[in-house]
Amino acid sequence: MVVIDLREAIGKGLKEALINNDKVFIMGEDVGEYGGAYSVTKGLLKEFGPERIMDTPISESVIVGAGIGSALAGLRPIVEIMTINFSLLAMDQIVNHAAKLRYMSNGQFTVPILIRTVTGGGAQLGATHSQSFEGWYASVPGLKVIVPSTPYDALGLMRSALKEDNPVIMAEHALLYGVRGEVPNKWYEVPIGKAIVRTEGNDVTIIGHLKTAHIASEVAKILSSKGKTAEVIDIRTLRPIDTETIVGSVKKTNRAVVIDEAWKTGGFAAEIASVIQEQAFDYLDGPVIRIGSADVPSPYAQNLEAAMLPNAKEITSTIEKTFGF
Amino acid sequence: MVTELTMPHMGFDMKEGTIVRWLVSEGSAVKPGDAIAEIETDKAVVEFESYTEGILHLIIEPEGSTVPVGTIIGIIGDVNEANAAMNYRSKIKDPKANKDLDSNSDTIPDFLEATPPIGKENVTDQTLEIRASPVAKRFALEHNIDLNLIPGSGPGGRITRSDVEYAIAHLKNEDSPELPETTDQVETKSEYIPSDETEAPKISLTNNKSDPPRVPLSKMRQQIARVTYKSKQEKPHFYLSSEIDMSEAMLLRAQINESMESEGVHVSVNDMIIKACAESLKLHPKFNDYFYEDGLQKNTNINIGIAIATDETLDVPAIMNCETKSLKEISIASKDLTQRASAGTLSASEYSGGTFAISNLGMYNISSFLAIIQPPQTAVLAVGAVTQKPIVKENELAIAQMMTATLSADHRIVDGAEGAEFLGVIRNLLQNPLHLVV
User: Fold this and answer.
1) Hey, are the CB atoms on A286 and B153 less than 8 Å from each other?
2) Is the pLDDT of residue B380 over 50?
3) CATH architecture under which domain A196-323 falls
4) Considering CB atoms only, which of B137, B155, B161 is closest to A321?
5) Does the distance separating the beta carbons of A281 and B133 come in below 8 Å?
6) Which of B118, B127, B131, B135 to substitute to test the interface with A, most A CBs within 10 Å?
7) Element (H, E) at B242
8) Contacts of A81 (CB under 8 A, 6+ apart)
9) Which of A251, A253, A285 would you mutate first to test chain B, the one with the most B CBs within 10 A?
10) B95 pLDDT exceeds 70?
């Protein structure tokens, strides 16, 4: 067992994949010489050489398109899109090609590509660099979307993703690379499509992913100081979603709160809230609370950005008001 | 924006009210202060005054319906808001529609009749109209509990899971006479688990059929039970008794009543006690406070409640603003209060606005007793009969008109010495009654 941060956990996963499978290669903007915009791929170029660690031009469409082509040809590409904001330029490749080729070729082709990208705000990066789009990709059949919030999950989910024959998007949160946690030395995997209960509780289920999973735990702590126990679920995979864990928990607690950092309108929290009311309606003791960011472009000013993003204190007071705690 | 008229909260512990009569018809204009409906609470029928100006576009709760506090009963809006008000139409219970369905049962397709709903049909119907969470509705259905009987503790009066669980726990202890005896026994046996937890329900299930039947509590009884139980559970009562020589007071009272007979003034012993309490409360305002968990409410007005009992009811309506009233004014106000209490036309604030209370059982020849404080008040004075007694006065035996007054006070707010001083002022005033009139 070692304690490492999330950045190191992903680096470890990349490195062992490069060692274990010579069909694996990494490609993206600044992943080689610079070591990656978030220093995840640091040192890999030196160790594995320019044939397997490739710096690309600034063209997200080409990065994903070339990745798809190489995957079709039998390689196992890991491509990095510097941030999910730029993935919009590759959206046609991701949604219309990566997600469709297996289906449209009746299984003659598979696209085993892992697309790593960085999502989320809170670092004063302005309106075009602070968005959370992982929920958009989670609505596309043919894709899998993983969202690790701990070093353990990052490594474990990546190992599962590298065994997948389908395109997988791994959204990493810009502010979670420093999160530290235990990672076993022994080989383990975290299955795609399995949520995890971080804290058990009886009074309310709080569901989040990435940074909002950590916020959910904060809320649980505040509530426990007031005598209420919250069950915290980190969903870990947005597609396929683990409805069993979510619905099972809500049936126990009778109350649900879904937190997402994306805009509230049409956000992924709405999807989970719908699943809850469809499958656990007769168990609800109050409306499902949906928390998202304010429906505005992310402000640059620190105070305004903080006001836009979900925060534990406000969520707690919403919970108290809604459920009469 | 239309205004939602909601069932008002008209007094301590009021959970629901019944609309006796709408005094304004749909489409009529109303102003703030206009009486628009008569509402019956646990205690009385009270006029409900509009708090806004506009047109009563829609009556949602018909006459005779009983709804929890906070339920929308009607919609008021300006002239242009008739359409907005109509959006609330879906909230209207439509007894006619249901009746039509019953009388035309032929028209119901066979397949509907072939699959009766689970549980009692009327339970299902009623739950559609009540604000209850889905899990509360399911629990109620599974346990055959009528949601109409359960007060909601959730936001906006919503009935929550814990409300139903509470009701289940309490209603289960009652008889279920419809169950045939054999079923009763079989069920008891099959459910019997020899553990401490199941002891209580087991006993009630095997309830001996020869026991006399139980009569449900009236609303008034329930209310009294709630208030007294809450008070005795929460309030650490302490009691102080004092014998008061009422000879002078009785004399003065006779003089006043003789000289003011033409004006129709008739001062009672109780009026003098009220006046004495009001004066003492001015000097000891803590006894006029309300106790709440987060602090004391310092009441600026002195509203003295008078316990009035009839065959069916026990009310403690208050004479408002005693701090500014003379003995004569208090006497007139208390007579008026008693008359209106028996007519049932007291206002909500009179029912719930008391800041102190007096309970007098003198007319029943009770010498002394202890009264229960009415939350959130701090104290109550229990007054016994005025009787002739031998007393020692200046080393000689004498006859005096004696009365025992017992103060019950909440020890969280006041202490014994303060109570003694408070009661001492009352005693001195009554023993030197000229101070009450001058």
Assistant:
1) no
2) yes
3) 3-Layer(aba) Sandwich (3.40)
4) B155
5) no
6) B135
7) strand B237-245
8) A28, A60, A63, A64, A87, A90, A115, A116, A117, A118
9) A285
10) no
- What residue ranges in B322-438 does DSSP mark as E strands? 356-360, 379-383, 387-393, 396-410
Cα B19 to Cα B7, B23, B65, B87, distances in angstroms? 9, 10, 6, 22
**In the 8-state DSSP scheme, what is residue B366?**
-
Surface-to-core class of residue B224, CB atoms within 10 Å of its CB (0-12 exposed, 13-18 middle, 19+ buried): middle
Quick one: B145 exposed, middle or buried, by C-beta within 10 A (0-12, 13-18, 19+)?
buried
Find chain A residues with C-beta within 8 A of B153's C-beta.
324
CATH number of the domain located at residue range(s) A2-183 in this protein: 3.40.50.970
Helices of type H across B235-307:
247-259, 269-283
Q: Taking the domains of chain A in order of start, what are their residue ranges?
A: 2-183, 196-323
A95-99, A291-295, B9-13, B331-335: the lowest-pLDDT one: B9-13
Residue type for position B332: I
- Whole-angstrom distance, CA of residue A198 vs CA of residue A208: 11
Pairwise CA distance, residues B387 & B396, whole Å:
19
Instruction: Please tell me the distance from the alpha carbon of residue B239 to that of residue B232, in angstroms, as a whole number.
Output: 13
Interface contact A324-B155, CB threshold 8 A = yes
Indicate the pLDDT class of residue B264, thresholds 50, 70 and 90.
confident
Distance CA B402, CA B427 (A): 11
Residues 155-214, chain B: which have Cβ within 8 Å of A? 155, 158, 160-161
- Quickly list DSSP for B137-158: HHHHHHTT--GGGS---SGGG-
Sign of the torsion formed by the C-alpha atoms of A70, A71, A76 and A77: positive
Q: Helices in A138-178 by DSSP H: which ranges?
A: 151-161
Nearest CA of chain B to the CA of A223: how many Å?
18
- Give me the amino acid identity at A298: S
Cβ(A60)–Cβ(A99) below 8 Å? no
ipTM: 0.75
Distance between CA B141 and CA B161 in Å, rounded?
12
| Active-site annotation of A, residues | 60, 129
Are A26 and A81 a contacting pair, CB within 8 Å? Answer: no
pTM for the complete prediction?
A: 0.53
